[in-house]
Amino acid sequence: MKRFFTSMWKVSGFTVEDGYLRLSNGWKKPPLKVKLPARLNGLEIKQVQLVWHRNGYWLHIAGIGHAVRQFGPAGAS
Fold it and tell me: What DSSP letter does each residue of 21-65 carry, written as one string?
């Protein structure tokens, strides 16, 4: 049995507003808001995944714009 699974949002499941990524969290639940790093400005985001990697959550952002490397575990500064 798999203990962790990947949550995925396609274009219809998120919005980008004022430097924040707002991820839909289900019907009648507030969205999950994540501040985007400045280096992702101008990126046309197509898909977002929240994955468990080793000992923490990582946010994977796929988009069109410029090449961006991974930027660390979710919640890290």
Answer: EEE--STTSPPEEEEPPGGGTT-EEEEEEEEEETTEEEEEEEEES
Report the amino acid identity of residue 6.
T
Query: Is the separation of the CB atoms in 30 and 47 below 8 Å?
Result: no
- Distance, in Å, from the CA atom of 10 to the CA atom of 26, rounded to the nearest integer, reads 14
Q: What is the residue type of 64? A: I
What tens digit of pLDDT does each residue of 55-65 get? 888 999 988 87
pTM of the model: 0.75
What's the token pair of residue 47?
């898909």
Q: What CA–CA distance (Å, rounded) separates 61 from 28?
A: 25
Tens of pLDDT, residues 12-37 = 999 999 999 999 999 999 999 999 98
Residues 23, 13 contacting (CB under 8 angstroms): yes
